[in-house]
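Encode chain A's predicted structure.
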Amino acid sequence: MTDKPMLILIAGPYRSGADGDPQAMAANLARLEAAAWPVFATGHLPVIGEWIALPVLRSAGAGPADPLADQVLYPTADRLLAHCDAVLRLPGDSAGADQDVATARRRGLPVYRDVTEIPRRTARETA
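Encoded structure for chain A:
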């Protein structure tokens, strides 16, 4: 491992199981975001595709339940994965997160199922 922190995509359910309910999607996003600190604490940089895709959708006058969302959410994750070093796949059914995992594997990126699997950087590396 280099001294460079990894950019780790946190992937899991966002719209899945929410049936278009904004509160359910917000709860799913909160679960994704709950993994951000543990990833950061390992010495790496977490990123969630929705952090990028949702402002893109808003700027187009759309939201996550809009038909345009499929043209933004999945492509955003794919483009973001071109810059990521790994994926943390959180539990839960999600076609998008499964697609992220498949893309990561095709690109030879590690896929972690738990934050404890992520290699910690040493104190010298995180300074």
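The beta strands are 7-11, 45-47, 86-89, 111-112.
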